[in-house]
Amino acid sequence: MAFPRTLIARIMVLIALLLAIGQFSALKIFDYFEREPRAKAAALQAVTVVNYTRASLLASHEDRRIALLSELSGREGVRIYAADLLEVVEPLPDDPFIRLVAEKITENLGAETLVTINHLGVPGLWISFNIGQDDYWVVIPRFQVERPFPWQWLGWVALVAMLSLLGAYVIAARINLPLRFLVNAADRIRQGEQPPRLPEEGAEEMREVLRTFNEMSEALTRLDSERTLLLAGVSHDLRTPLARLRLSVEMLPAELGESLRNGMIQDIADMDNIINQFLDFVRGVEGEPAQMVDLNALIRSLADRHTRSGRSIQLNLSPTYLVSLRPLAMHRLIGNLIDNAFAYGNGKVAIITKITAGNMVVSIMDNGPGIPASHMERLLRPFERMDSARGNEGGSGLGLAIADRIARLHKGKLELFNRPQGGLEARLTLPL
Fold first, then answer.
1. Looking at the whole model, is its pTM more than 0.70?
2. Is residue 164 part of a domain?
3. Residue of 286, 271, 164 whose CA lies nearest to 224
4. What integer best gives the mean pLDDT of the chain?
5. Measured distance CA(371)–CA(34) in Å, rounded
6. Which one of 104, 279, 325, 385 is most buried, counting C-beta atoms within 10 A?
7. 82 and 204 part of one domain
8. String of b and e for 110-131 (b: at least 16 CB within 10 Å)?
């Protein structure tokens, strides 16, 4: 059986174990310290019965003893038998209480007294005594000597255990609640959202954790705001010099060479594309309202745009439902994935859509070299690139980060897979 993984379950299991160990230990301690007084009382009762029986027999005439034995037998469950010296007396069982009772009886009646249990197939505590040359057995019912196990205690123990576990559950739930808030807030930060400030309540250690988390969250927000402001400022300020530079290149004399001029124009276009990615990353898409969109139609419009520029995209689009999306954001997401596939995919791109398990799945596949599996998740972070594995195309490392941010904004998921036949698959999963 595996140990529970949740905090509440672990606390409940540990408390249940502690209760069981505590109850068992208390029972053993009680039994140990209560055993000797109980054995003394049982032995005193047995000695009293034996002495009473001996005194009665001694006071009677020898001719009346057999009749008196019959008369005494059966009173209070006590029975009296004549003993035979040839009888085989079995040793006492390995029961600490019975042995202690027998020890106390022999201390009172003498070392020659025999004590046994269930002699001759008759249940009870058998104690020997003699009158002159005659030997006798007094048989006392065991229930008068041994106290039966108090089964009603089990009910009380179970009730106490249930109440204790209920209290433990309440305590564990109160401890777990701030941790649940903490997990939810951390998950929102992971998805690029700003969670509300967590209430700093509870034990001192928990308040310290929540206070530290709130400070960390606020510091991350400030850092993100400063980075956004820096990127926006730099990107905006570079636009005008790039425009002037491109105009100057267009006006260069033809004798410098068409290839040189086209190369410079392409470099300027690459820089302008990087600036556009910076601005896309800075602006975000959170403010755009959601609409019911035909995702297949959006994909076809993007494919037509690439077809007009001489690129070919193979489409395999299954019938789908209208989905609640932010159309401009989704246009940017799928557009980034298509651009990425053409940049690294040897000019062959395929797009497949399908509905499975209540999700809309869009797969954009290329025939490029793929990427190492250990770098899949890292490439979804801002400014991460894998130039050594996917060529050395120009880019800022923001395309996949923007796509991942938009996917998470739609409660979806963007994943990268290496295809068995070669190439990379960017798989977008959106809930319907």
1. no
2. no
3. 286
4. 79
5. 75
6. 325
7. no
8. eeebbbbbebeeeebbbbbbee
